[in-house]
Design goal:
Layout (H helix, E strand, L loop, with lengths): L2 H7 L5 H9 L3 E3 L2 E2 L13 E3 L2 E2 L8 E6 L16 H5 L7 E2 L8 E7 L2 H8 L7 E7 L6 H9 L2 E2 L2 E2 L4 E6 L2 E6 L6 H8 L4 E9 L2 E2 L8 E3 L2 H8 L2
Parallel strand pairs: 7-13
Antiparallel strand pairs: 1-2, 1-3, 3-4, 5-7, 5-15, 6-7, 8-12, 8-13, 9-10, 11-12, 13-14
Helix pairs in contact: 1-2
């Protein structure tokens, strides 16, 4: 197995982050510092990161969390603010979030120690849909605004792809997008003069938030993980 993939499977980091760690000289195989992420290794290779030996790949797991507002979508925070990883606390497994969900947004976020799966779910080429419910301000939301979101709107970093949009009731809408730009949905709604007041992610690919309460998490079943791999 290639070294970067080995680190990802061991839960150290995503494969891209592992490649950066390797290039920085933080990884050794035996007594040798290795900077080639394609170096072949196995469980007998005595791989260490920052001098700490790895015991081999952890069992790969995926958790779904209903993230509360105010919790950061990161593994650690230098200012000691609460993070999604702290809410799951999966018995010492080195988890990290799959993608981001703004601190002022809530809802479904996935956490895993499977770097390969995390990369597939977040890489733009796979276009995994994320579904949100947004409560909008700016007065009544008319059909013209919804149609503009469906067609795609012009943002400062270029036009967005068409989105699936439906009105739930009043100024509450449901939107599915396949891009992952920074605060994209908030910027899209602002572009049609309806700023987001509340934003909750309710779907990630085939998964739905369902009855998971705020702050609660659950481990995905084997069949659910396989559905994610098949995307």
């Amino acid at each position: 197995m290639r070294l970067a993939k080995y680190l990802a499977h061991a839960g150290v980091a995503s494969r891209r982050a592992a490649e950066t760690m390797i290039a920085a000289g933080r990884v050794s195989v035996g007594a040798e510092v290795v900077t080639d992420p394609a170096r072949n290794v196995d469980a007998s290779s005595r791989v260490t990161v920052d001098g700490r030996p790895l015991e081999g790949p952890e069992p790969r797991v995926v958790y779904a969390l209903n993230k509360p507002v105010g919790v950061l979508s990161t593994a650690k925070d230098t200012h000691r603010r609460p993070t999604v990883v702290e809410l799951v606390g999966a018995e010492g497994l080195r988890l990290y979030p799959v993608g981001r969900l703004d601190a002022d947004s809530s809802g479904l976020i996935l956490l895993t120690n499977d770097g390969e799966l995390a990369n597939r779910l977040t890489h733009p080429s796979f276009q995994v849909a994320k579904t949100y419910r947004a409560r909008l301000g700016g007065g009544p939301v008319g059909d013209a605004a919804l149609e503009a979101l469906r067609r795609g709107v012009e943002l400062d970093d270029g036009p967005t792809a068409p989105a699936r949009v439906r009105r739930v009731r009043g100024n509450l809408i449901e939107v599915s997008i396949r891009e992952g730009r920074n605060r994209q949905l908030r910027r899209m709604c602002a572009a049609v003069n309806h700023p987001v007041l509340e934003l909750r992610r309710v779907g990630f690919g085939p998964l739905r938030l369902g009855g998971l309460e705020t702050g609660e998490h659950r481990r995905l079943s084997f069949s659910e993980v396989e559905r994610l791999r098949a995307l």
